[in-house]
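fyi for ur records
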Amino acid sequence: MKKFEFKVLARDQDTKARVGVIQTGHGPIETPAFVPVGTQATIKSLDSDDLKDIGVQIFFVNTYHMLLRPGLAVINHFGGLHEFMNWSGPIITDSGGFQVFSLGDVNRQRRLKIRAEELTAPLIKISDEGVGFRSHLDGSEFFLTAEKSVESQIALGSDIMIAFDECTYYPATHDYAQKALGRTHRWALRSLETYREKARPYQALYASLHGSTFQDLREDSARYLTSLDFPGYAIGGVAVGESKKEMIAVLDWTIPFLPKDKPRHLLGVGEIDDIFNLVERGMDTFDCVMPTRLGRMGQILISKSFSIDINNQKYAKDKSPLDSECSCPVCQNYSRAYLHHLFKAKELLAYRLATYHNLYFMENLVRQIRQAIKDHQFLSLKAQWLK
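which gave:
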């Protein structure tokens, strides 16, 4: 297998946008690239052949969920995630840090106030050593450390792994964000040591930069983690409630410190306007549940107005394709009226067709962006899309 490598192939003359290629043990990734999320080792309703036909280069699998179900023993029995899923392309896995956030007591207290849920024992307990948590499936207890997180990702066979991190809730005080950042930095060092000792030659580990919405903490995180010489860098904690303006500010504070010869990933961001803003600032890859989750709700991505709600009654007799500018098989073979009917009838095919189209839409968008950067027309393309 080829070793991990990143090359910048072209740069936009007016912005920091760049085209590159990430070489992984399971194939190349042309960047900028959108990374769909397959939480449970599947992009819901699609199979591996669908993903290849759409043009998906890499997708995201959540380590936390793999540890709980089916468990490392099962995946090891198959020789890793690639064999288990029958997916030959690259895979990126997270550290479990976001699940620490989502299961956290602060977040649970917030949901308690909103939904009047009965308060039970906290699902997690964070310490400098690691995170103790109870499974959301059966309540069984686990303890996840930086070492265990990276060892698990190595066992999964991930091409790109994320160092163990604490995803700070929003809004957080400066004091708490600083303490959480200190933990993340200490965990990053331990993650890196485990990676260097145990990883396979083709695998790469990205540091995860944090600091909430505080400029001094974000800059401190970038300075420290880039000094450790990770193969790549991820920016985290910008998709947990922050505004788009705050997300852009974090990028503007952080990216100038990142090495120009290493890949950059933005965790959890992928709406269309966000994509143009983050690519303009020099990000290479980015993951988001948006196109697949919205697709299952009947929100269809289209070129003219970003999205339509196919559940709307006005589409009940509409003979036109989902998107007249899209060449995907769904748009070539099915009408809006048919998709409207499928969603109203709650037919399973509705979720597959909508998800297929939405991912095809996203892959087509990033292909356009890559070409525009090569042609030094990125800002022109951005203006066309965001007008």
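The chain has two domains: 5-288, 295-380. thats all i got for now
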